[in-house]
């Protein structure tokens, strides 16, 4: 009963958000009905549908939207959802249709490659069996009897085909991780090599065995065994080219996010540019903190406020050519009056003070809530098994006591767009189920985590664009720079080769460590 009352208080505490959300809907529709500005900046609708825009994400409209929104929980998500449903332009529709056509082309290319590889693999496994069975079917009466050695070769072929099947399944039958812009060169070369190899074997088999109806059945079986042996060697070559060649670190790449400058270093082996880009993206989602565009709006608003305070007058008249000198004088005067560094210093100090204060309040609120949970658990143990609360009900019971402190802290650190109330309740119930401490619960909110930690719909980019001056199928080289672009930002990758290290050995004679201690025979006594 208490859990139900607390849950009702939770929903009543957040009931005032609906009115703000409706207001945000109307503001979003009115804002997007207005025409675009002359400088080509885009509104938020191009962000919500997640298509690659021609302009940066954080334009003038985005900063105005950030300034116009209040601090209520979940309002940003509601406003963007309303915009994406009710506001869209013809240019956006054309871009969406183009992306759909590109995705259909990528799917066709992927399925075509899988179909060709599957057909070729089936041909490879059926060819040795066909070499052995065709003479038995076509001219069985004319064949020489198969002795003990011939029958032993049957067992050899069977086990080698089984080993080849398991190795092929482990190496090639994997879930694709990405759609690359170009084909994998080594994989394509292996497919061509296998096709030429099997074709040459079939050609020799048709000319020398089928046409002449060779009666030496043991020789035919040995011919099939030689084919399986060669296929096993090709599989070993595939392991070397596809797996072992890239293991030795040869290059060091520096990955820099273009918006906030966060960087990481990775070691890579001999890879093509497109496969190196794939490795960089896999490590990006794991190592980089989640991209938060709200952290960039503060500096932009500060710069806009400072520029708004400057007034420029054309003192020389519209027809005079001395405007360059007047601009230089105005810029020099503006630099003398510039005190933005002091504003930045006090602004950051005030922000740090507010973050520490609200963090302390949040820690205390969460610890009190978890103490209440322990008291509830002690009370529930005395009740009947059917009357015990599940973790979800317990999370709803203690959430109102920490909701306000958590909401203020997330607003101050600008993380409210990554944590919805439902996700917080799920995380809280997970911590209660596994008997985790308050510190373990707060770890997700006190420090921005990696990108994979958050909801897939909030961080996952549907499409990345690889920009490189070199061909994407060419290998990595020293000094190559390529860029990975997505909707909101880009990753700049700089490749450096690991330097050649020369080590020399210096021999130390063991006798050089010996010494003699000489004591004087005369003493003071």
From TrEMBL:
Biased composition, class Basic and acidic residues, residue ranges: 36-45
Q: Which GO terms describe its cellular component?
A: plasma membrane
Alphabetical list of InterPro entries matching this protein: VANGL
* Short name of any one Pfam family annotated for the protein: Strabismus
Q: Output the superkingdom of the source species.
A: Eukaryota
Topology in the lipid bilayer is annotated as: Multi-pass membrane protein
Does the keyword field hold Amino-acid biosynthesis? no
Membership in a protein family:
Belongs to the Vang family.
What name goes with this protein? VANG1 protein
